[in-house]
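Worked example 3. Consider a protein that binds protoporphyrin IX containing FE.
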Amino acid sequence: MLDVILFGAFPYVAVVLFVGVSIQRYRREPFTYSSLSTQFLESRNLFWGSVPFHVGVLVLFFGHLLGFMFPRQVMLWNAMPARLFILEVSALICGILTIVGLVGLILRRARSARLRVNTSVNDILVYIALLCSIITGLWVALSLRWGSAWYTHTIVPYLQSLIVMQPDIQRVAELPLAARLHIISAFALFSLFSFTRLVHIIVAPVPYLWRPTQLVIWNRDRKTTSGA
Ligand code: HEM
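Given these inputs, the predicted complex is written out as structure tokens:
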């Protein structure tokens, strides 16, 4: 029964919350759609936490996405043991980068009084959910090796069964605890997404990469004007 709730119903609740609340929040409170930067409260430690965390988590995020979209290509890539090894080691390095960065971000908030008062319950939930996802991911990587090989005939068919609305719970219910917890924590992150600062992921300022540079033209003499 618990498996039916966790792997058969929870994924749909997560997707409904993710899509429904994200759209609703964007319409009602567009100015809250942000990462709510804390750089002006503390910037030195932010760099050492945020950069490794974001580099690791973004590679892992897109790696998971591509892996689920193109399982056959991943299998072809893995046909040579050396390539399988490169893929697994790269993912593990990104997992370690992510956890090191995340612990850095959490310690940064815990140590600074200014940041502590600006940390909401939602922020704490995000840190807990991210920690669960990353710790269980590393647990899978270290205890159930060659995940990039076995996921194609376990997790991929399970996700496909969810898409066609006929959840094949058996596929995941038989997986070891680490893998099951990793899947549940991913759906928990999806559920929290639209209520928290995680929404900044879908409003990433990507167009900044190709938009023309801004030219600031002063019409007054900057030396003689107060700027008021
Ligand atoms: C799409 C690309 C992304 C961009 C451009 C981006 C950008 C940012 C920025 C600018 C901040 C604020 C840092 C500050 O000044 O305080 C931030 C914070 C944060 N981001 Fe991202 N992010 C991205 C993806 C992600 C992803 C995929 C996750 C996790 C799944 C994530 C989780 C977080 C968290 C938890 C914080 C809060 C850090 C803290 O204040 O302790 N971000 N992000």
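Take a moment to read the result before moving on. The chain has ten helices and no strands. The pocket of protoporphyrin IX containing FE is lined by residues 35, 37-39, 46, 50, 54, 57-58, 61, 105, 109, 126, 197, 200-201, 204 (CB under 6 Å).
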